[in-house]
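Summary for the funding panel

The consortium committed to producing paired sequence-structure records for every protein in the target list. Below we show the first two records in order, beginning with the earlier of the two.
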Amino acid sequence: MNATTAFSAQPAGSPLARAYTVQPPGRAQRLLQALYWPLVGLLMLAALYLVMRLYLAGQTAWGLGALTLFAAGFYIYLSKAALAWRYLFPGVAGMLIFIAFPLLYTTQIGFTNYSSAHLLSQERVRAYLLEQHDVVEERVLGYSLHAVGGGEYRLALGPREGGAPQWVSPPLALRGQTTPQALLPAGGISLGEALPLRELIRHREALQRLELRLPGESSPELASLRYLGLREFGPLRAHYEALADGGLKRLSDGQVFQPDAQSGFFSAAASGETLQPGYKVSVGWRNYARMVLDAEFRGPFLSIFSWTVIFSALTVAFATAIGMLLAVLLNWEDLRWRNTYRTLLFLPYAVPGFISILVFKGLFNQNFGEINAILDALFGVKPAWFADPLLAKTMLLIVNVWLGYPYIMILCAGLLKSIPADLYEASAIAGAGPLTNFRRITAPLIIKPLAPLLVSAFAFNFNNFVLIALLTDGRPDYLSTKIPAGQTDILVSYTYRIAFRDSGSDFGLAAAISTLIFILVAAMSLINLRLMKKGGH
């Protein structure tokens, strides 16, 4: 009897028959099926609306990127042909948005003059300068607002000191008129009571968009009256006039300013004067060339780069030596209270790093710190830990090694458990001592699997911004440098000072240094991967 015959022989209500019978969809399932495509349509409309908003805001590149991302997402999740990509798409999209895009954007900024003085585009700077104006004080008029019925109002304008109005506006609905309104002589036009200040405040936004025209005025600039406040209308005199070639003419002296693609300013060729603010332009490799060719920048930069490498290398070396020594000592089975020692030695790693750093900042205080108090009592010296460059660097190494050795100790403790005890027994029979065991057995078997982790620790300390910022803030500073730099700065803290603090927020230069840091850290990561690959064989 085959399976089909056996199934057909079952009674209609048997469990086997119920298991193989296709059940009709339930109410909730039918509801989900009915709402599926409408919800998909709403999501598509929302995505298209967001893309359109980006495009209308002038962000064409952002809009194109969002459209590509949304299109790929809808295709992958609605098409059966891309079923396998449904599990990879979130990770790939996240990597592109949060890793690749910031990296490319930072690299792109490194090829520009982007800074606090060059934040805007050329078009926005030009528009900003054209909007600059002065009020023609001698032509300012006071005004009052009067209701004329039907939801319309008139403005009455006259001397600011008070008196009879000289001009009145036609009836206005005050709903955002954008066309100029010609004023009429006030004679013969009856006006009711002036509206109180509260009503003026209520109509303020409409009044701000209103332009009134004085009849009989030869100068268009003086004939146009604009809202100046809750009690005044008056003409505005522009500072600059737009030229057909993209330049600007200063009306006060007739000087012409043209956009300079090298400096990112509107500048006058005759006098060399520039207009603020500047705009963002591409400068090519100029930021990278400054690291090598500019002597005033190259000096502190190379010193900071060298100190960053030395700081990271010495931290890893000392932390590894101390951590490995403690792990070997704690692995000694005859040592009493091993767990107590292990717990106490692990505490620096358990306490949040920023708390330990701030505690050490107080301990190293030259006048009130406990460390100097002990040194003064024993040797009669009170070192200037924060003022002397060598002592400040020594202090950084002491604190960083204190924070880092427990990590190495834990790693070595785990690796020691993987060494066969037979090796030590054979070494004891051969008469070898503890130092020989460590040099011939322990160290060679530990260092190979530990090497990739040491490379990771080096990369971490290469970017250890928190320690520098909280303990020394990069101080003491180098003297007579073009860009402020500290002798205890590492590259990442130096980049932070350039980008956000001491040098006018030079984002372009900071982005170039950040790109260099990325290349160095990426190289260390590749070394790490190679070491891990070799360690696995």
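The next record, for a separate protein in the list, is shown here:
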Amino acid sequence: MSSYDPPLLLGQPEDALAQGSLEGLPFDALVLVAPSPLSSRGGAFTGPVSAALACALKADAALDRGPRPPAVIAAPGLPGGRLVVVPMGPLGEDTDDVRSVAEAVAAGTSRAVDAGATRPLVWVQAPSGPRFSRAREVAALAALGSQWAPVEAREAGKAPRTASAVGVVGLDEARARSLSAIDHGRALCRDIAGTEPERMAPRRIAELCEIAFRGTGVAVSVEHDVSGYPLIAAVARASMRVERHRPCVVRLSYTPEAPASRTVVLVGKGVTYDTGGADLKTDGHMAGMSRDKGGAGAVAGLVLAAALLKVPVRVVGLLGLVRNNVGDEAFVSDEIIRARSGVRVRIGNTDAEGRLVLSDLLAEAKSIAERAPSPTVLSVATLTGHVYRAYGPYVGAIGNGSAQRAGTLELLDRLGEAWGEPLERSRPRREDYSFVAPRSSAEDVVSSNRLASVNTPRGHQFPFAFLDIASGLRGEKIPFVHLDIGGVVVDPPDWQFGRPTGSPVAMLTAFLGQPAE
């Protein structure tokens, strides 16, 4: 595999821009990102920057109104003689957030590279206040992320030219190293989530993990025999005839050097291709289903970032890697399968396979958490179409009573806002548990109804009730949060052609840095 070689992230002290000439800095373009009107911010910039900005506004008054696409201006005295101006708009409304910074910086960095720069310097002027408290960090991640190219492009030698380094004004060296670690995790997430299904079949993802975690201190183990995960084995039944499509469970274990007082166990849905199985996807809805492994990608990326950052938290990631094929061996609706937890599951729709994969992994996560200090269990999955129908481009977060009482959902909400990966919260209701309740003495829980989630009331909430029951977590005191990333795994939200986002690796990395409740 052609590995991803990200740009070097460099911090640049802000006082260095007070020099009479900036041409001596080790950069070849200045990307200026600021709220509109830019003319009102002239006092924030030094001589050559202020002069170049004044020339740009004189030549194009529309730049002062924003938001606008990046404009490249010839600017003697600035790095590389280039100024890339990216107006963001006023950003004065309560609904504005730091994603505007990320979008503007990504566009500006890409435009600078298109113009010939190889070492752009990003200078962000953001509003004050808690919503923009991480604007520089978000800007750095956006600049780095804009340079990622798909595995297929890299291996074919068709990846576009990228920057060799990116500077961000106001970052110190230690913070730049930390953000580079997060970027490495997000890049691994993108590689897993965004790569086509043959190149990233279950066992090839396992091989990628073995390579990616070498030398990080993370123990990687791969279970090729998934008979101990009966629900995963059922999903995989029609894929067993093709060796590369056979399922596996990957365990990623990171243990800090000092004894950890906190444990986070994560499970990720890694359905490398989802045909829908016997409940076959029709009307073109199968296109893009290679991205149904975004949850596994996010978990792998988070563990990598945690290890590179040496967080003081024990982190265990479980990836359920499986292909949901259709065929004469495919599992079908009406089957009753005893899950890893011992719970009897009646299958309602084979296209609701992700919750089956997660339930067996969550049963194992429960076993790990029961023996661990201060545990939290999280599942991450592109689980439903309903979450996008309900929330649009936001992570859907739902947690059990223990997670709500511990303040875990509130913490994730705050961190998501700060790091540009916002979420919408909900809570499980009695109707959700009634929806999956057994209809006979033959089963303990029903996996789903016959309809797609987008056509079902509370279509992304009731699956939490199923996970809670089928995993054996219900009634336990372990905080458990499920993150449905179906609306954010790619941007724009076109599952076949959208660009993988790496979300919510940054928010979850920040979560690992928080003290135990």
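Regarding this second record: The mean pLDDT is 94. The chain has two domains: 8-171, 182-512.
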